[in-house]
Amino acid sequence: MARKLPHKDVVVIGLGWTGSILANELTDAGLDVVAIERGPWRDTATDFLISYAQDELRYRIQHELFLRPSQMSVTFRNNSKETALPVRTWGAFMLGNGAGGAGVHWNAETWRFLPTDFTVRSHLTQRYGANFLPQDMTIQDWGITYDQLEPHYDEFEYLCGTSGQAGNLNGSIQAGGNPFEGPRSRPYPTPPMKQGYGHALFAQAAKELGYKPFPQPSGNLSQSYTNPLAVTLGQCTYCGFCEWFGCANYSKATPQTTVLPVLLRKPNFEARTECEVMRINLDSTGKRATGVTYVDTSGEEFEQPADLVLLCAFSLFNVQLLLLSGIGKAYDPTTGQGQIGRNFTHQTVSSAIGFFDKDKYNFNPFIAAGAIGTCIDEFNGDNFDHGPAGFVGGGYIGEVQTNGRPIESTPVPPGTPAWGSKWKQALRDNYLSTIVGGSCHGSMCSYRDVYLDLDPTYKDRFGRPLMRITIDFHDNELKMSAFLTDKYAEILQKMGAKQIVKKPRKGPYDVTQYQTSHLNGGAIMGTDPGNSALNMYLQSWDVPNLFVQGASAFPQNAGYNPTGTVGALALWSAHAIRSQYLKNPGPLVHA
Amino acid sequence: MSQLNRRQLLASSAIVILLGSPAARAAIIRGGLPWKPGAADPPTLVTPNGWHFFTPQETATVEAFVDRLIPADDLSPGGKDCGCAVYIDRQLAGPYGRFDGYYMSGPFQKGTKQQGPQSPVTPARHYRKALAAFDKACSDKFGGKVFTALSDAQRDEAIKGLEDGSLKLDGTDSKEFFKLVLKDTQNGFLADPIYGGNRNMASWKMIGFPGTHYDYRGWVDRHNQRVTLPTISIAEHPNWSG
Known about the structure:
CATH architecture of chain A: 3-Layer(bba) Sandwich
Largest interface: A-B, 90 and 90 residues
Distance between the termini of chain B: 29 Å
Strand content of chain A: 15-25%
Mean pLDDT of chain A: 97
Oligomer: heterodimer
Structural class of chain B: mainly alpha
CATH topology of chain A: FAD/NAD(P)-binding domain
CATH class of chain A: Alpha Beta
Number of domains of chain A: 1
Low-confidence stretches of chain A: none
Strand content of chain B: under 5%
Helix content of chain A: 10-25%
């Protein structure tokens, strides 16, 4: 029997980016907020030290900061005819854990999606005709426009201090920025990062090929910056231990370096760490959440009553908690009915390795940062004519080498023996003169047969079913990946590479091959309960005092990293809760 | 009040441990950021004295094995002198050897390649079983000589037999075992020396990685120039307090 705790106004499940942002906004509104976090407390001074943060084995290879599969994993299969098996150690994606969530270990590539990404089905249908999209492709409009979200993209970037070069200021195209981006109301808060040799060569080659290269928008800051909450971040030192690592230097935008120092000082906020939410509780009507039940590390169960429940876990676990709590209708791929679990997507990332003459080129790959890089956006979204291409979607292409860590980033040319003196010689000959960090950050459309549901066999440590992922690549994505990879290889050629190894994404989807940790969908936003789990404010259609944050709301994935959009949506949702919901609790959109 | 005392006070008000038991770590955090600089666990420096996992026979085999995977030559000392066997020994005696953190609930069943490893056999058990089988396989192939009794050329032949699967091991897959030893050896060779391998930062000096510097602001836009900073590891870091 759970011990019932005193009532709170708001309970937040998960203290990552969205949980921190929402808790900060709602404590500002005067509400009493408690956050329940599955993982440990983490802060820079305690956990990320300049004396030992740069440890590749511990953090990159052995996954120190991540959720342990023994605590919670998922199962995976390529299609519904197969038996899903558990992911026993992470491969294709890495899931965050603890205060700050995945916002601790991310690279901080802080992109906005394109205006047409939000209206993708209407846009593509209008431009190419109704028969252009494959029958089983279930992409749809978001129910929100870029213009509605723009003030909140801006707000998130100013919270983070994002470093970049504007490409479109209020409709006026700016030299040196991304000319394809949607109009932004202000420049980035800080100038772009300095770029290394490889990035500079990429920029030059891209220009020669007629493209418009620009520095990647980065949450590793080019200079120190004090955000609107009066929290100060430091200048990035280009140490090359960023993604998978905590930043010891306060120079990566994370909940720890932007929001938590302010949030934690408020008397009306409290975080409970190493406490795992079991379910969201509903009243007898099933249409109102009464709070959550969670378990602490002693195994004791607590019931935390609250008026408002904010589901702010990682996307997969948002969907899992909805299904375990009986909220909404589980998706059925045979009928296409039910919203919870539908339109799950990942990313379609590919690359090419460029080997250069070691006597002429020294890239110093270890001088790097998570979001350093130079990119082009000519082949993203619908920035080019897809008519002759035979696919939809795209991605940014960039030289975005994030590290020169010796275990991860020591490529050797094909045909090199895997061991012995020849292997050593190849390591030595290529380490400084190879560009391994080329990225084609491809989108992934949603499909009828790619979805999430509860696994019938495998359970977590409490006996709850694991989330089951059913996913494979479709021809559309594989064609797109080959196309983007060829375009990147042409740039590498122009840069002067002596040997290029193309690595387009190939099927079948493999859960051991790392791509990104951008898992999306399963509880998507939309215009009515027939096409979505959430309304445009991320409010549950079924349970109006429940808001579900994060990338689980994405109806499909765009050709960018998701965190900028996740942050903007969280601020948009927070604004709606403060300005509308609190005055008149109930559905913000009437179905 | 001194700065330190103020910080200690902040720390004491910021974290309230929910339960007295040392194993219970659930906490309530409120009233400010906890401030306990460096209180989380720094890594423990591995020292090469004795063996924590391998038997003397296994030690000899593994030292000989890593010395062929990473032979001594003009570029670096061999795998044994770089400490790769010490690295593997300590890894197998620790969390890595036990699959700590892995999802280990059954049923265990073979899936497709893209579903990833599904074996319940931990690295520690894998090494124990496969090393014994390896000696037996060598003995059968090379007239009663175990791996350590072979010449360098014969050792390379035996290792190639594992790599291509032609040298069969009793009760375990030789290619899988080869991949495991290769990965562990190369990780030890390339990881920070605090873990027992990469002694004197041999691999880092070999490839030109300057190590665990934390500040390249002065170098980032010096394009195409070789960085001349001395190579350092975590243990040699000026702020090291492990």
